[in-house]
Design a protein that fits this description.
Blueprint: H1 2-34, H2 37-46, H3 53-59, H4 61-77, H5 81-95, E1 98-99, E2 104-105, E3 110-111, E4 118-119, E5 124-125, E6 130-131, E7 136-138, E8 150-151, E9 156-157, E10 162-164, E11 168-169, E12 174-175, E13 180-181, E14 190-192, E15 197-200, H6 221-249, H7 255-260, H8 266-273
Parallel strand pairs: 1-4, 2-5, 3-6, 4-7, 5-8, 6-9, 7-10, 8-11, 9-12, 10-13, 12-14
Antiparallel strand pairs: 14-15
Helix pairs in contact: 4-5, 6-8
Length: about 270
């Protein structure tokens, strides 16, 4: 009896595994059918960890969330609101990414890692946009109508950033990790901090894709401010020294002022700030 029971149990488990494998295979076939080539290509273009098309189709929740949203968005505009919301709810459970079916998303949209991303109902996202994990495109009002942000083409939003309200993020702008953005960001600019501040217009740079929405110099606004103050102090010291020399030429004794003047090394301070 025991061997027969063990064999039966093994057959049941094996049958269950086969069913799961077949189900997953069917889902992957459906995903491969729905996913466009440019969806897959956008993953390879922006994630060097992607090694094969099969890996992208099976292991990238951002791609899965995009496919689910494409279906839910179609249902939403077919006035099947509940079904669209339920499908997005299932997608949230499977991917960890919550995209309201009413949100408008452009082509070649890429969510890297994905967990914790929230995109609200009236959000609008352009083409070639990249979001990292923990990003929120949220609203600041309970009133109906436009209450979520609009992202232009080529925008990169770093991990943990919050973009709140019906504001506009210009084309090719970059939002640094953990920034809280509540005002418009002009095209090509980089914004970081809480609340987010515009760091530069990047007119001198050649553009290109910056992971996590920040440049190689990290563009820390406090860092830049301190460097500016140090540079200004050097300029002030030079002017004071010039005044002392002129007074000395006029016969005014300045030895005491020079002896008591504070000395500092700007190069050393700049290294500390960096």
């Amino acid at each position: 009896m025991v061997p027969a029971f063990s064999i039966a149990l093994m057959l049941i488990i094996l049958g269950g595994l086969v069913s799961v494998i077949l189900s997953v295979s069917l889902v992957m076939v459906a995903i491969a059918f729905i996913a466009s080539r440019e969806d897959i290509r956008s993953v390879f273009d922006r994630d060097p960890a992607a090694r094969s098309t099969f890996e992208v189709l099976t292991c990238y929740p951002g791609l899965h969330a995009r496919i689910f949203h494409r279906m839910a968005h179609t249902l939403w505009h077919a006035n099947l609101k509940w079904l669209a919301r339920f499908l997005s709810h299932i997608a949230r459970g499977l991917t960890g990414i919550e995209i309201h079916p009413g949100a408008t998303i452009g082509r070649r949209f890429f969510i890297d890692h994905g967990m914790g991303v929230v995109i609200g109902e009236t959000a609008e996202i352009g083409d070639d946009v990249t979001l990292y994990h923990g990003v929120t495109l949220g609203g600041t009002s309970w009133k109906e109508g436009k209450r979520h942000p609009t992202l232009g083409n080529g925008v990169v939003v770093g991990a943990g950033a919050k973009i709140l309200g019906p504001i506009h993020i210009g084309d090719n702008a970059k939002i640094g990790s953990n920034a809280v953005v509540v005002k418009d960001v002009p095209p090509g600019a980089t914004a970081a901090g809480i609340p987010a501040r515009i760091l530069d217009e990047e007119k001198k740079s050649g553009g290109g894709f910056n992971a996590y929405g920040i440049g190689n110099d990290h563009n820390d606004p406090v860092n830049k401010a301190l460097h500016g103050l140090i540079g200004h102090s050097v300029t002030v010291d030079q002017r004071i020294e010039f005044i002392l020399r002129q007074l000395e030429k006029m016969g005014v004794p300045v030895e005491e002022e020079r002896a008591t003047a504070d000395k500092f090394d700007p190069n050393h301070l700049n290294k500390i700030v960096d």
